[in-house]
Amino acid sequence: MNKKRGNKKAQFKIQQMAFMLVAVIVLFGFVLIFFTRFQLGTIEKSASEIRREQAINMLHNIAAMPELRCSSGSEINCIDKAKLQGFMKVKSNYYPVWKNAFISKVKIEQFYPQGQEYILYTGTSYESTISYSTYIPLCEQEMYDFNCTIGKITVSSKAI
Questions:
Q1: Quick one: DSSP state of residue 69?
Q2: Would you kindly state where each structural domain of the chain is located, as residue ranges?
Q3: Which residues contact 18 (CB under 8 A, 6 or more apart)?
Q4: Less crowded by CB within 10 Å, the N or C end of the chain?
């Protein structure tokens, strides 16, 4: 009789240990799930910030491109309309640069007075995009002087 009772006690202890192990594993599973969700949110926020910085850097890079920038001796950080019109003929050479930066659209438009719109790149259209823009002088050289108007560079990027 004692042997049977000892057997039941041992089985009860084994069951108790098994339930404790299952409970600990489930607890660690929940902790792992919450930690993963937290890390995923942090990574998404970082990716969004990096994309935003890339788009803003792209604005500055477009304004500073020698292919578009006004000739020396003129206004700093302006875009030459004649160079811009020439650039429109070879713009496809720059598609890989914009595509790799998750850029969906790059355009330059004459803002004031109303004028022309130059679309430098239209790539993959994403379900959600965010646009960044900056104003810049658009200048035309007339003999020895530059005639400038207000232009706007807009870069649309994939939003996360």
A1: B
A2: 2-158
A3: none
A4: N
Q: How far apart are alpha carbons 85 and 11 in whole angstroms? A: 86
Taking only the tens place, the pLDDT of each residue in 1-24 is: 566 666 888 888 899 999 999 999
**H-state helical runs in the chain:** 2-64, 81-90, 95-100
* Burial class of residue 84 in the structure, from the number of CB atoms within 10 Å of its CB (0-12 exposed, 13-18 middle, 19+ buried): buried
Phi–psi pair at 123, nearest 5 degrees: -110, -145
Write out the two tokens for 145: 């002087």
Q: Which of these, 129, 91, 128, lies nearest to 108 by C-alpha position?
A: 91
106/155 Cα distance (integer angstroms):
5
What is the model's pTM? Answer: 0.70
The string over 25-59, giving b where at least 16 C-beta atoms fall within 10 Å of a residue's C-beta and e elsewhere, is eeeeeeeeeeeeeeeeeeeeeeeeeebeebbeebb
